[in-house]
Amino acid sequence: MAGIGFKLQKIARQQGLFSGFSAYGHAAVIVAGPWIFTIIAVALISISTEKRLGIESLANFRIVLIYAFALSIIATAPVVIIATRMVSDMFHARSFDRVSHVLFAALFFGLLLTGLASFLVLVVYFNIDRHYLPPAIFINCLIALIWIVLAFSGAIRDYAAITIGFAVGLSISIMLAIWSAGRGGQPIDLLWAFSVGLCFTFFWILVRILRTFQDAIQAPFSALRLMLRVTRQHWILAVGSLISMIAVWADKFVMWIAPTGEKLAVGLVHAPIYDSAMFLAYLVIIPSLASFMIHIETNFFLRFKVLHKAIENHATLKQIEDLTRQLATSTQKGLWQILLVQGLFCLLAIFMAPLIIEHFNFQFRQISIFRIGIIGALFQFLFLASSSTLLFLNQNKDYLKLQLLFLFLNTVFTVVTLHFESIYLGYGYLGASVVSGLVAYLLLENRLDNLQFHIFHMAATRSGENDWMR
Predict the structure, then answer these.
(1) SS3 sequence, the chain?
(2) Is 455 exposed, middle or buried (0-12, 13-18, 19+ CB in 10 A)?
(3) Is 382 buried (19+), middle (13-18) or exposed (0-12) by CB count in 10 A?
(4) 68 or 40, higher pLDDT
(5) CA-based nearest residue to 448, from 330, 355, 360
(6) Residue 189 needs a FRET pair 20 to 30 A away by CA distance; which of 15, 146, 302, 451 works?
(7) Residue 262's beta-bridge partner residues?
(8) Does residue 409 come out as left (phi exceeding 0), alpha (psi in the -120 to 50 range) or beta?
(9) CA of 367: how far to CAs of 38, 134, 273, 415, 463, in Å?
(10) Chain centre distance of CA 463
(11) What are the angstrom distances between the C-alpha of 182 and each of 176, 209, 227, 235, 298?
(12) With left for phi above 0 and alpha for psi between -120 and 50, is residue 15 left, alpha or beta?
């Protein structure tokens, strides 16, 4: 699925002042589109409507969107990674006639799991205000659908259309929400207005995919059974993806249910001092994720393909060793280059933290949480990049173990910090990110050192794993 990275690399290498910015901007939308969409929209809507609606009403509006983002990305994680694996195998076999079948099955199971998760959390656990329930579930499902179609963006390689879809949808959401507030609308009305923009973004990307893969779905139930079959075959991958998303939110969940959590009129709880500073800190690593997609992921795919081809063509042992060494060196060097640039960017953000906090009208005591979150996000990028690269090597068990480690540490360390003064908030996430990031990188280094063994093992098992395509 690295195909879209090739085009973005080509744009980044073009001459012109804005070529690089354009490539990284498209990549940022692809890797974190819904998150960027939500952050920008909520910020602009809050600034424009605070005087009309008041802080409390806006807090109800924001918390519904935060829960929608969390629930949708957790519920769809297994579906997205299995669908991505299936489409990747199709591209490897040069067979594209069932991509639309995979898309249909992914959308179905994504809606099913998101609806179930929304009901259990919003209704059963929190007993959300019944007036907020319809727009909350609707937005949950919409964002889930966007995550799924976004996963197919690597297949259509139409980065410009994806960016346009998010930009126009964002504009629609902001304008309708502001218009609704100006006419005396309540937070519920803002949520419905916000969902219109999400609808546009989803259908825009969906249409682009269906225009590329036009094969009719003759047997929808067969498509569903096929995805279930592949999920059973790759259950470790599905569980690892689910755990990874829960782990990312683990510290927030702990803060919400702890004494630090505050319950709003809508019925949901949050920890505003912690949440806003951490969410802002997460934005710092989006450039690194975009760079990872453009350079590391794409270059790894190219070199890995060359190595795999050499093995198929019965290259000499020395040739294979040279190609293996080049792949390992290139991956490690590229990763450290991104970390160096990201480290300098984080250092700048740490020094500017008081100005950033003041600009967003946060409280002064959030400066320390924001700074800790920035450092933690740097190591979390190392964790994400290392564990994702392990997936390229088909090390699904290693991936699952790493996600379980991060979930355990993020939960336990955050619980421990609650027994200390508030100035230590965020140190749990920081400790979990540092330990998990370093462990993930060391494990990746070990697997790269033994790359030849893993490649031969992949070649021996791949044909059996792809039986579902026959």
Answers:
(1) CCHHHHHHHHHHHCCCCCHHHHHHHHHHHHHHHHHHHHHHHHHHHHHHHHHHHCHHHHHHHHHHHHHHHHHHHHHHHHHHHHHHHHHHHHHHCCCCCCHHHHHHHHHHHHHHHHHHHHHHHHHHHCCCCCCCHHHHHHHHHHHHHHHHHHHCHHHHCCHHHHHHHHHHHHHHHHHHHHHHHHCCCCHHHHHHHHHHHHHHHHHHHHHHHHHHCCCCCCCHHHHHHHHHHHHHHCHHHHHHHHHHHHHHHHHHHHHHHCCCCEECCCCCEECHHHHHHHHHHHHHHHHHHHHHHHHHHHHHHHHHHHHHHHHHCCCCHHHHHHHHHHHHHHHHHHHHHHHHHHHHHHHHHHHCHHHHHHHCCCCCCHHHHHHHHHHHHHHHHHHHHHHHHHHHCCCHHHHHHHHHHHHHHHHHHHHHHCCCCHHHCCHHHHHHHHHHHHHHHHHHHHHHHCHHHHHHHHHHHHHHHCHHHC
(2) buried
(3) buried
(4) 68
(5) 330
(6) 146
(7) 270
(8) alpha
(9) 22, 36, 10, 21, 53
(10) 29
(11) 10, 37, 46, 49, 47
(12) beta
Beta-carbon-side half-sphere exposure of residue 403 (alpha carbons within 13 Å): 25
Phi, psi angle pair for 216, to nearest 5° = -70, 145
Residue type, 235: W
Q: pTM, whole model, 2 decimals?
A: 0.86
Mean of the pLDDT values across residues 263-282? 90
In the predicted structure, residue 6 carries a pLDDT above the cut 60:
no
Tokens 């009719």, located at residue: 216
Sequence-ordered list of residues with C-beta below 8 angstroms from that of 207, at least 6 positions apart, any chain? none
Query: How much of the chain exceeds pLDDT 90, in percent?
Result: 39
Find tokens 């790894």 and name the residue: 300
**Which pLDDT value is given to residue 4?**
47
> What is the identity of the amino acid at 27?
A
- Euclidean distance between CA atoms 328 and 333, whole angstroms: 9
Check whether 78 has a pLDDT greater than 60. yes
Q: Which residue is associated with the tokens 């094969």?
A: 215
340: exposed, middle or buried (Cβ count in 10 Å: 0-12, 13-18, 19+):
exposed
Contact 132, 97 (CB under 8 A): no
